[in-house]
């Protein structure tokens, strides 16, 4: 949890820096509630993995197409898909990650059709979400966890 000594966070882009005070009141007037969910479907390709590998410099051979073995999707890439849903849809823009727990109970392979879900489970000063990435065909959970979030005010 962020200390009261540091109630501001900086959000930067190339041309400016904006200081946002963290939202610390209850969210009773906000338009979302516990039980709200969002879900998308996505199939990751080898090109997606190669792009991610180049961005992160993670060139572990398990993420490459090496003969008979199917490439395994980066766990951080799955986490990024969840982060995209949280930061742009539920709760949405201004969301700040406070803490996160995650598990990878099964491997996710290139070409598998994924359903990525986020559910808002608690709406207080600290919001809590649960998330899952499931391979549709096999009903196999490949990524799951919880995150605690805050909303930035005036961003």
From TrEMBL:
GO terms for molecular function: (3R)-hydroxyacyl-[acyl-carrier-protein] dehydratase activity; 3-hydroxyacyl-CoA dehydratase activity. InterPro entries: HotDog_dom_sf, MaoC-like_dom, UPF0336/Enoyl-CoA_hydratase. Residues 39-130 form the MaoC-like domain. GO terms for biological process: fatty acid biosynthetic process. One of its GO terms (cellular component) is mitochondrion. SUPFAM superfamilies: Thioesterase/thiol ester dehydrase-isomerase. This is MaoC-like domain-containing protein. It comes from Parnassius mnemosyne.
């Amino acid at each position: 949890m962020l200390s009261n000594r540091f109630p501001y966070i900086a959000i930067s882009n190339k041309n400016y820096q904006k200081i946002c005070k963290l939202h610390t009141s209850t969210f009773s007037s906000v338009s979302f509630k516990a039980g709200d969910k969002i879900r998308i479907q996505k199939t990751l390709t080898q090109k997606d993995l190669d792009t991610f590998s180049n961005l992160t410099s993670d060139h572990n051979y398990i993420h490459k197409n090496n003969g008979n073995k199917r490439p395994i999707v980066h766990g951080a890439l799955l986490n990024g898909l969840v982060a995209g849903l949280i930061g742009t849809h539920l709760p949405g823009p201004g969301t700040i990650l406070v803490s996160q727990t995650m598990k990878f109970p099964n491997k996710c392979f290139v070409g598998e059709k994924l359903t990525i879900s986020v559910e808002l489970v608690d709406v207080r000063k600290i919001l809590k979400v649960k998330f899952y990435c499931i391979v549709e065909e096999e009903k196999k959970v490949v990524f799951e966890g919880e995150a605690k979030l805050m909303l930035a005010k005036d961003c």
